[in-house]
UniProtKB/TrEMBL annotation:
Positions annotated to bind [4Fe-4S] cluster: C148, C152, C155
Tagged with keyword Transport: no
Gene3D superfamilies to which the protein is assigned, alphabetical: 6.10.140.1170, Aldolase class I
EC number: 5.4.3.2
Cofactor(s) the record lists: pyridoxal 5'-phosphate; [4Fe-4S] cluster
Record protein name field: L-lysine 2,3-aminomutase
Radical SAM core domain: residues covered: 134-346
Principal EC category: isomerase
Length: 393
């Protein structure tokens, strides 16, 4: 991290989605990254080279609570990393702030609750070759890196994040590609990690070209948080590479409406303008986004930048996640509070990724009330009951 200068932060800007005053990125840069030019700040490689990785780095920006400070001293496992850009969202926050809670560890991570596990989805047991999870018959999850620019404290793959491999990464990728080539039922490949967009353009191009050269691969998806934590990564040259592969879909990990900054909006618009279908994935987190108003704010903001809310995940029971996990009833209440109260496009699928490897199971509130004398009883979003004739001649 660069040198700090005591330049006062003069003005704030209003986040269009939440109305929250956020610090001006220029002021933040001048104060905390003295001598850094705007051009450097807007370069994703500079952002990666200046990631905040330690207690000392983060303490220059926020005052840590006892619980947060304790976590830096005692937590091992999932590394700590936040891009300078995303750190700008943390200025002036308390330890209760929604966005801050998702990236700064607390001592709660050390408490392993009942039913929690390091690999709750049993991914390691569905891995035919290193870096590939083959759970559903027609699609695979291709984990191309174990690194992210910013680590989410509730990451399902915490157990792997930050891992360094000694061998050649391309040889590892090639083994996964060879498996996909030899498995004709795989028609859909989800490239994830870690965050694939921390890789250089040349690697992304190589991966996409190698996969699209396989005849039976009909579609490719990229799972990423880059537009949210590293929006500078969405460059014209990256867009050119992404545009060369059809059909390519992108799932973007969003958590809270405070993330919809001018930079993130621009990144999403660039991707949408390139014709890449965009969907969001959000993990339901206690005290972070478990209110209908917060989710509505996020989903309305996403639709404005052409990102379709796709999945709302019940938080996976990874070790030390108890402080993040809500009851399933809370998730169902989120959907109840959205369905009928806003446009259907703003309503994601609420799912639990079944522990042990059962795959995603959708959960919907009890709109179906039962059957009686050839009629289906249904409850609408206002709680009124309706009958549908379920007999056909
Ligand atoms: S961006 Fe995804 S892979 Fe990276 S830490 Fe967050 S949840 Fe995990």
């Amino acid at each position: 991290m660069s040198t700090i200068a005591e330049v006062p932060i003069s003005s704030g800007q209003i986040n269009g989605a939440t109305g929250r005053t956020v610090v001006n990125a220029d002021d933040f840069r001048k104060r905390y990254f003295k001598g850094t030019t705007k051009k450097q700040w807007n370069d994703w490689r500079w952002q990666l080279a200046n990631i905040l990785r330690s207690r000392e780095d983060v303490e220059k920006i926020v005052k840590l609570s006892e619980s947060e400070a304790c976590a830096f001293e005692t937590c091992s496992g999932l590394p700590f990393a936040v891009t300078p850009y995303y750190a700008s969202l943390l200025t002036g926050t308390s330890s209760c702030d929604a966005v801050r809670r998702t990236v700064i560890p607390t001592h709660m991570e050390m408490i392993k609750g009942r039913g929690e596990a390091d690999d709750p989805l049993g991914e390691d047991s569905c891995s035919p070759v290193d870096g590939l999870v083959h759970r559903y018959p027609d699609r695979v999850l291709f984990l191309v890196t174990e690194h992210c620019s910013t680590y989410c404290r509730y990451c399902t793959r915490s157990r792997k994040m930050g891992e360094i491999h000694s061998g050649n990464i391309k040889e590892r990728w090639q083994k996964a590609i060879d498996y996909i080539k030899a498995t004709p039922q795989v028609r859909d490949v989800l490239i994830s990690g870690g965050d694939p967009l921390v890789l250089p353009d040349a690697s992304i191009k190589w991966l996409l070209e190698s996969l699209s050269a396989i005849e039976h691969v009909e579609m490719i998806r990229i799972g990423t948080k880059a537009p949210v934590v590293l929006p500078q990564r969405i460059t014209k040259s990256l867009i050119k590479i992404l545009k060369s592969v059809r059909p390519l879909f992108m799932s973007i990990h969003f958590t809270h409406p405070d993330e919809l900054t001018a930079e993130t909006v621009q990144a999403c618009n660039m991707l949408a303008d390139a014709g890449i279908p965009l969907g969001s994935q959000t993990v339901l987190l206690k005290g972070v986004n478990d209110s209908v108003d917060t989710l509505k704010g996020l989903y309305h903001g996403l639709l404005k930048v052409r990102v379709r809310p796709y999945y709302l995940y019940q938080c996976d029971p990874i070790s030390g996640s108890g402080h993040f996990r809500t009851k399933v009833e809370t998730g169902l209440n989120m959907i109840k509070g959205l369905r009928g109260h806003t446009t259907g496009y703003a309503i994601p699928n609420y799912v639990i990724d079944a522990p042990g490897g059962g795959g995603k199971i959708p959960l919907i509130p009890d709109y179906f009330q039962g059957k009686s004398e050839g009629q289906i009883m249904l409850k609408n979003y206002q709680g009124n009951t309706y009958l549908y004739p379920d007999e056909v001649l």
